[in-house]
Amino acid sequence: MSMDLSEFLDVFLEECFEGLEAMESGLLHLDEGTDLEEINTIFRAAHSIKGGSAAFGFDHISNFTHVMETLLDELRNGSRQVDKNIVDLLLASVDILREMVEGLKTDETPDEARVAELKKKLEMALADSGASSDPESETPPESDAPSKDQDQAEAASWHIRFIPGPDLFRDGNDPVRIFEALAELGSLRVRTDAANLPSLSELDPATCHLHWEATLEGAVTEEQIRETFSWVEGDCQLEISQTEAAPEAQSDKATVTETTAEPAAPAPAEKSAAPAAKPAKTSPNRESGSIRVSIEKVDLLINLVGELVITQSMLNQAGLNQAQGGGASAEALLNGLAQLERNTRELQENMLQLRMLPINVAFNRFPRLVRDLCNKMGKKVDLVLTGEQTEVDKTVLEKIGDPLVHLVRNSLDHGLETPEVRAAAGKPEQGRLELSAQHESGNIVIRIIDDGAGLNREKILQKAIENGLVSDKDELSEERIDNLIFQPGFSTADKVSDLSGRGVGMDVVKRNINDLGGTVSIHSRQGEGSTVMIRLPLTLAILDGQLASIGEDTYILPLISIVESLQIRSENLNSVAGSSELYRFRDEYIPIIRLNSLLGNSGGIENLEQGLLVVVEAEGQHAGLFVDRLQGQQQVVIKSLETNFQQLEGVSGATILGDGQVALILDIPGLVHLFHKTRNQMRVPALAAAS
Amino acid sequence: MNSNAAQKIDVDLQSEQGVDQYLTFCLAGEEYGINILKVQEIRGWSEVTPMPNTPDSILGVINLRGTVVPIVELRSHFNLPDAPRGPTTVIIVVKAEEKNGNQRTMGMVVDAVSEVHNIASTDMQPAPQVGDAEDQPAIAGLATMDEHMIIILDVDDLMINRVLGLADEEPTTQK
User: Which N-terminal stretch is annotated as signal sequence (chain B) (predicted)?
Assistant: First the structure.
């Protein structure tokens, strides 16, 4: 009876997490009003977790889920009303359940005392109503197969009636194993007869009160069936009878739909399909619409397509040279190359689509978070999510979660006011927090909009002056003041409550977002609320780059950091203390960073007026990068330097150009940092000499 | 000597017990050897893309069929005098393995590759201690072939610890 279930374990775990998420979001919807469909969804999720965990022998999970399921069943059949306490209780159960499932991954056992406590609470809630209308047995997962199954009997070839003695469990026999073994023989459908169950108070979970009726379809002899029951044969009543064989097609259809209802059956059924080349009986294509593929496989394909794109552009260049002679063959070559280019580009675009997931995945934790925080703070907030289906790369999605949580907490904590304050300000008591996502010119833009108090500019300015970020003489625009909160070293620690007392400031949020190649800004209106806008690239695998030449080398500047590129005019050039070069850009003096010297490039134009200045923005500051000239803009595939070498300051990666050469992708904030560092190193000895 | 070499190359790569095959190459008149199982391929010289703020011995990176591979100038790393690139100058692409099993593909520029030798571990002598252990260039041992001394390098130690400086503190000059 040794079955290798380990290969299904990963699938099971993933399904569990999905189920838990479905339960959580369903429960949160219940808050807003009872919806039978919603309850059914939750119930189904709980049911399949219970069934799956029983099949894998995770009894602590199946037992716990069972109690939840019983409670849910009462909600479903209307014998109990949904109220906030129950929802809270169920949400807490979902959390515990998630811990238990996560524990399976890491082989940790969750805190049993907490599990037991919660289980007790659930059981108390159950007992409370006195309406335990449908007590179910503790162990077998099949216990609540819909009774309407019976009318399928004529489609079966074998009918098995299994009435075990009361000591079945005590003897160490598990009916689940027997039915798993049966399911290996053919398509199995099991119905549990719980008619003999005593009431819950008299129930001894170790005694078997259940009967089972099963129908089995397949090329099976009575002998084989009896064999699976051989361990229990002496201690049970077993009736096996043959019913007339059903038409193949019809029975097929019937089993597929039925097996999905039976949690324990699908896994073995799938397993049997491969080795025993039986008639096309088991075709468990339950999710015809999608398949599960590991992310490594997708990444490998994306890499390969990246190579293909490079090869294609190399071919293109070679082809153009080749075709200069003209003639019919040259034209055919050019046509072919054009076609190849189109196809590879489409292939690449579609390939990158594979990694895209709806932003929903990052958003769906917020209803719960907002609900919990509001309860804690006594605030009333209506959370509105829009554009949840906007797709974004999986890596971006994984990394944006924490900054978003931070921003949402911030809005709840500092932005939105308590109902009393709101009422006094003439606003509706319930605040509004909107999370929206949308695509804008190759980027994803996420907005966090609240209608709270807005930022307190005076306080921010005062704080910034205290911390020496700005001087009190500076004339700052309102927007500039608002965005000071993202500056490193700016901490509102003295007014942070315990709720958002997380020890990290908004500068961490900004840095995380910058690391993803994105930008963040805040816009606030006093008394009306504030809007945080995050702009992120859709994917981390490719980057919109501006090719720039310095000497003989080509570098890539991320297009997102570039503000403007301009020809240098000598009247705008200034120097400070004879060394630092500044350029008057609009109303601002920005430092000129000579990339050739910073990057140790021996070539490159020295005369400023002959080259170009690329004005970039890094950490809220402008700087001018001096380059020889600009080439085209193109999407480049990002290659890590760390894989084979190590990270370099000022360089975020490398890419391969159409001619096969490697070009470095510059990291603008890193470059600016590097520039200031080398400046300081030069200045220190000078200062020492002066003093 | 050439026919000798040809014969030796024919020997099955699955060498006998305790005997390993070593690829030897020339560097400023000295002969070095590395375990052939570490060698991924040998490429002709091609232009590299320089990288900012790296030691002089790191020439830059090349595109090896879509992988960005750093190139080390071994002469410069061993403080040997510079030499112009000749027709025999090649890049030996090796796979260096970190202690944690992580593999890095890196290239090293040498004057010329010479041959493949079978060297039994018993024929290898430990390198004599000359100067500080820190300065020892990752020598696994010395072997003698046809009256020549071959300096056997430990590729992992050389690339990971010396070139990339990823090592933990203790020097592993001798194996």
Answer: none
The Cα A89–Cα B152 span in angstroms is 69
pLDDT tens track for A626-639 = 999 898 888 787 88
**Cα A363 to Cα A416: distance, rounded to the nearest angstrom:** 19
Q: Quick one: pLDDT at residue B130?
A: 66
CB–CB of A639 and B69 under 8 A? no
| Helical ranges in A77-207 per DSSP H | 84-106, 112-129, 175-185
pLDDT of residue B116: 92
Q: How far is it, in rounded angstroms, from Cα A453 to Cα A522?
A: 14
Q: How far is A300 from chain B (nearest CA, A)?
A: 12
Substitution target in B40, B47, B48, B53 with the highest count of A β-carbons within 10 Å is B53
Q: Are A120 and A105 in contact (CB under 8 A)?
A: no
Residue A688, H or E segment: helix A668-690
More confident: A626 or A164: A626
Which amino acid, one-letter code, is at A198? Answer: P
- Which whole number is the average pLDDT over A645-663? 85
Which helix H or strand E contains A620, and what residues bound it?
none
Residue type, A659: D
All structural domains of chain B with their residue ranges:
2-163
Fold classification of B2-163 (topology level): OB fold (Dihydrolipoamide Acetyltransferase, E2P) (2.40.50)
Model pLDDT, residue A149 = 40
Residue of A nearest to B61 (CA): A662
Given a cut of 60, whether residue A430 has pLDDT beyond it is yes
Q: Note the pLDDT of residue A208.
A: 77
Is domain A6-129 classified as CATH 1.20.120.160?
yes
Best A305, A549, A645 member to test B by mutation, with max B CBs in 10 Å, is A645
* Alpha-helical segments (H) within A220-265: 222-228, 248-261
Task: Mark out chain A residues that contact chain B at CB-CB < 8 A.
Answer: 303, 306-307, 310, 553, 598-601, 639-641, 643-646, 648-651, 654, 656, 660-664, 674
Query: What are the φ and ψ backbone dihedral angles of A67, each rounded to 5 degrees?
Result: -65, -45
Q: What does each C-alpha distance from B19 to A575, B37, B124, B125, B173 come to in angstroms?
A: 67, 13, 10, 14, 21
